[in-house]
Predict the 3D structure of the following.
Amino acid sequence: MTEDINSPDIPVPEELKGQVAITTLDRIYNWGRRSSVWPMMFGLACCAIEMICTAASRYDLSRFGMEVMRPSPRQTDLMIVSGTVTKKMIPQIVRLYNQMPEPRYVMAMGACASGGGPFKEGYNVVSGVDKFVPVDVYVPGCPPTPQALLHGLMTLQKKIDNESINTSPWYSQESSEEIPIPILGPDLIDPRDFDRIAAQRNAVAEPAPEA
Amino acid sequence: MEEQRPDPTEMALPEQTIPSDELETRFQGGVRRDDRDGYEGYVVDTGKLVEFATTLRDEMGYDYLSSVTGVDYLPEAQMEVVYHAYRTSGGPALVFKVQAPRQDPIVVPTLTGVYRGADFQEREIWDLYGIRFSGHPDLRRILMWEGFEGHPMRRDYRETYFEEEGKPFKNRWPEGAVYRIEDKQPFNKNVRYPADFTPDGWVPEGDAALYAGMMKVGPDGNGNGRGLGTEQIIVNLGPQHPSTHGVFRVVVTLEGETIVDLKPVMGYLHRNHEKIGERNTYLMNIPFTDRLDYICSMSNNLGYVLAVEKLMGIRPPERAEYIRVMMVELTRIANHLWATGFLLNDLGAFFTPALYAINERELILDVFEATSGSRMMCNYMRFGGVARDLPQGILETVRELVFERLPRRVDELDAYLTGNEIVRSRGIGVGVLTAQQALDYSAAGPVLRASGVAYDVRRADPYSIYDRLDFDVAVRYNGDVYDRYLIRLDEIRQSLRILRQVIDGMPEGEIQTGKPVYQVRVPAGEAYGRVENPKGELGFYVVSNGKPNPWRYHVRAPSFINLTAMGLMCVGQKVADVVAILGSIDIVLGETDR
């Protein structure tokens, strides 16, 4: 464990090893964060079953310090989007994401969350959660096996290891902006698309001038 | 072995138990036989529908309405609603239909007054087909949201990502360059708006209507008129809630802690299974059925292949039948273990009982993985057989599980849980559903049998080799949460009993009738295949017009229809019991919302 956080450049005397660690702020921050990623208890579809199996005794998520699944977004670090994201559900997903405290991570588990998967063509399916929230790790599979999910979590740990308090967005001066919550209209409306929808309407109202 | 196999022609034409002319003569001109090729049952005039259904229920013993579904016959410009009614004493279905011209508004009288189980199914038909059911008590959209544009299951509705009417698509790599369908859409998303739509000043419909309908008192008065008035409040549970088993939402009206009214809200996982299924070829639908009730993929496969085999008039070889039953019964055990573990989760024993249950389920999943290549999404059954033979040595693994390990583990769960103070006090007398109500609300599976109705499709209308197997239909009589827990243990034990016979009797031989083909020929007609899934009766209604893609592909989902009775079970209980009652119904959202 101490090897993880000890800075290799500064030698620690042999007799003090195991009691003293010399490290950088980045490393100790990242070490603490990567070892206690609390996922949100948030299951959407089939993948949630494999996520539960991953948390159960055979695959044992607690080896990674991640077994504390919280149903409230306020207490979580990681949102595992485990299943098909539908248009009816995406407003809630965005709201949950907005409610998570920073630093926060999103994992798209399985084909549906990554890009719509087998249900992509459906009229009620969002083709990937990354159309609305930023995704850190994509885990392929339909559903991904528990091993694949664990690999995804380790990939996330690697990503956390490389963060720095100088560059991480959550330590910058500006507070991060909330993602506008999509609206259920005649179809799903992303508030960021308002201009484009208006432009479409205007194009209908005023037919293009004859060339 | 060969002579045991029934003649396929017998299978394709189930015998009618009704005297042939009785219904027609009785409803002079209002009822006629459906004489289209490959179709069965009766076509009823819309005006006579309620009377006809009442006669069926009260005089002919068809006390159970299994499935209601709409079909859009676009070329004939007709909308049809198809009903499948059964007798709980056993026997084949009585199919009846009403037809209405395909011109808005399409109106059909509701059957909720005769069979309450039609409630959610009629709402679904209104949502997806735009058929209005006159007299329905609460005709709102159910899977999509209020305000959604269009009725998406109509054959002329084209989704945003529409490419071609049916698969397989011609070429997705025109001139060697692959394209993504997003790139062809103006918003790069799966959305489309009416031409004159503008979001400025536009107000979403929201849930105001739902809430208003659930407040039982006016704005100026509170209380129930007896004694002190207490304020009614409306509480939402879900869709993000750890005890809803997925993305499910219930809206509850409370007076104090007592539930006055409860309405399930669903559709948060509506992923258009049926629409996609009608664009797919018959074979392509098998992996999609895996994802319906994703805990029981094997038995979903079986239900679907049975329906299509009925249309094709084929039967699998003996060994394939045995393998199918083995897989399906293993699935039942896995599902009931899971359901029991998570019911205990909902009762407050967080995750420990579930860990025991998941442990055993993993061993069953190992068998599935060895056989089919996948833990959960097995995609194993084929029309006229199974995809591949059992791998070497797996039968010994199953034998060890079935004869040694699982019986002990079930006894262990039984010993830990059945006498437990908390399980008893939170289960006994909570969420009671009487036998009459369970039938009326078309409840199925363990929910129906825990209420004292010994109706099991494996026994009442046997499919595959169940008529040759020795097992008891598990029944419990109190219809409460505790009985719904006990009946799952009973069913695990019965499944183990079936499995012992299947393993001992497993014959050698072929696993597929004929050669496996990608593009099956399905003659025109309709078929309703149903199996006793762990959650209840799973039915597939398939209409073929002889083309490579099904014209209609409907799933009668037990989780969905069992929820119809949830409000009834919850009213009068305390708010904390909602979670226990929901856990005891055992729903899976993939199937509820499809």
About this structure: Chain A has a mean pLDDT of 86.
